[in-house]
């Protein structure tokens, strides 16, 4: 099991701040994101621009996530 945290607009899309996600073995982050998108189709439009952090460290999508980790999904930041 992992915890997935949603930030910014992603909280609105997901309808919650965080969720538990079943994960029994080390898995590529890109695979977890694909499975999450199947459960929450509203995330699809945001997926190409998301940053991902595992246990407070920004990682590429090729990174492997371990059971028990926390995955934070971060939308792009804009402002002026």
Structural commentary:
This protein has helices at residues 9-14, 29-39; strands at 2-6, 18-21, 27-28, 51-54, 57-59, 64-65, 70-74. It is built from two helices and seven strands. The protein has a domain at 27-60. The N and C termini lie far apart (39 Å). The protein is an alpha+beta fold and 80 residues long. The strands form two sheets. Strands 2-1-7-4-5 form a five-stranded mixed β-sheet.
Please describe the topology of this protein.
Elements: E1 2-6, H1 9-14, E2 18-21, E3 27-28, H2 29-39, E4 51-54, E5 57-59, E6 64-65, E7 70-74
Parallel strand pairs: 1-7
Antiparallel strand pairs: 1-2, 3-6, 4-5, 4-7
Could you give a short description of this structure?
This protein is of the alpha+beta class. The chain has 2 helices and 7 strands; from the N terminus they run E-H-E-E-H-E-E-E-E.
Strand order of the largest sheet: 2-1-7-4-5
How would a textbook summarize the main sheet? 5 strands, mixed
Radius of gyration: 12 Å
Strand content: 25-35%
What is the structural class?
alpha+beta
Low-confidence stretches: none
Features:
alpha+beta, about 80 residues, two-stranded antiparallel sheet, 5-stranded mixed β-sheet, globular, single chain
């Amino acid at each position: 099991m992992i915890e997935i945290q949603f930030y910014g607009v992603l909280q609105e899309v997901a309808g919650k701040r965080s969720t538990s996600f079943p994960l029994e073995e080390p898995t590529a982050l890109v695979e977890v994101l694909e499975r999450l998108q199947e459960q929450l189709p509203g995330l699809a439009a945001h997926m190409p621009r998301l940053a991902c952090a595992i246990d407070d460290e920004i990682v590429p999508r090729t990174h492997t996530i371990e059971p028990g980790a926390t995955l934070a999904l971060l939308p792009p930041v804009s402002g002026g």
